[in-house]
Design goal:
It is elongated, with a radius of gyration of 18 Å. The chain is built from 1 helix and 7 strands; from the N terminus they run βββββββα. The strands form 2 sheets. Strands 4-3-6-7 form a 4-stranded antiparallel β-sheet, with no helix packed on it. A 3-stranded antiparallel β-sheet has the order 1-2-5, with no helix packed on it. 16% of the residues lie in helices and 43% in strands. With 105 residues, it is of the alpha+beta class. The protein has one domain: Immunoglobulin-like (Sandwich).
Length: 105
């Protein structure tokens, strides 16, 4: 399974190639924060894409996707790490402070 992740400041868009055939019941998505285990999650989708929402900015997540077949078996999970982007307001503040520091020198 070819898994890709496109991070945003408070979400991560996942995409993967669907498996052929009618044997797929659904896909299981699981994610965990490396620093705070309370920010873990798990969900199921019937699509070949999924958006993990309500995430904190600047956090790295380990994400896995696996297929659940109609016979009850599960595929080997595909893993990817993704870090959410800085929140826009903090990014602007950082740039402002960097510019102010440069001009004060």
């Amino acid at each position: 399974m070819n898994l890709t992740a496109e991070p945003h400041s408070h979400s991560i868009q996942l995409d993967w190639q669907c498996e052929d055939g009618n044997s797929i019941a659904n896909y299981t998505i699981a994610w965990k924060d490396f620093t705070d285990e309370s920010r873990n999650g798990r969900d199921v989708t019937y699509n070949c894409s999924y958006v993990i929402e309500s995430l904190e900015a600047c956090v790295t997540f380990e994400i896995s996707v696996s297929a659940l077949y109609v016979n009850g078996s599960e595929s080997e999970a595909a893993f990817i790490n993704a870090t959410t982007l800085p929140d826009g307001k903090w990014h602007v503040m950082y740039r402002f402070m960097a510019c102010a520091y440069y001009f004060l020198l």
